[in-house]
Amino acid sequence: MRIDLHAHSSVSDGTDTPAGLVRAAAAAGIDVLGVTDHDTSAGWAAAAVEAEALGVALVRGMEVSTRFRGRGVHLLAYLPDPAYPPLVTQLRAVLEGRDARVPGMVDRLRDLGVDLTVEAVRRVAGPTAAVGRPHVADALVEAGYVASRAEAFDRYLSPGRPAYHGRAAVELEAVLDVVRAAGGVCVVAHPWGRHDPGVLDAEGLAHLRSRGLVGIEVDHQDHDVAARAELRGIARALDLVVTGSSDYHGTGKVDHDLGCNLTAPDELARLLAAAEDAAREAGRSGTPMLWHGRAPV
Fold first, then answer.
1. CATH class name, domain 3-91+168-292
2. pLDDT over 90, % of the chain
3. DSSP 144-201
4. What fold, for 102-157?
């Protein structure tokens, strides 16, 4: 069974529609797909229709932008009730923060002599729920200032680069609490992918485990062999679920092909069991409402 639990559609910063993402997963031989757009569930319904038609099991999720001890951290929230009001409020705050930073980035780019407008960014982004840095990067590519998203981030948009603009973020512990109350569970995404371990060292991850974190995304393209081995050891010591995934964005991110990293079936079973427990504790109907497919065997 081939299980990829982290992929993005054009609802956030991927380039495939939700249905197109599922078709791409089926073509890549993926049996179980996690649809995890940034800070939104807007792609779930279309993905579910296509997944049912193609026989792909769907784990519905989202990648939530948070802050922990002063550092930005992404959380993969799986199987929450997307209509739970406190979760809706948190996600609205995150999306508003994403949207508000775009004019600031454009202003900084214009100060650098880059002729870009907010309207151009929004046009390139299309009907996404979460306009952000990747769409500014796409607008820079379209205007001919850079050749790729990667070059746009390296030259202009990453922290420390001249057009980087920070934004407000929800505190990580608050997201853990709300996702759990919504009947879902959280896995920290690519914890060592863009930084040294920092606040997500063994002590930090142990603290998050005590606050309800369920798993660590260990097998990710941004983790080298040594990082994966160390994270796997931490997960084992803390009894955390170990996931693996592509973090697929279509043509928006190279070297992240669907299925390049996978989650073991027994780890998916643990994740689903934890979500069942969370749904039961929250008095909700449980994961069958939000998960299409059969449990791994």
1. alpha beta
2. 78
3. TS-SSHHHHIIIIISTTSTT------EEHHHHHHHHHHTT-EEEE-STTSSS-SGGGS
4. DNA polymerase; domain 1 (1.10.150)
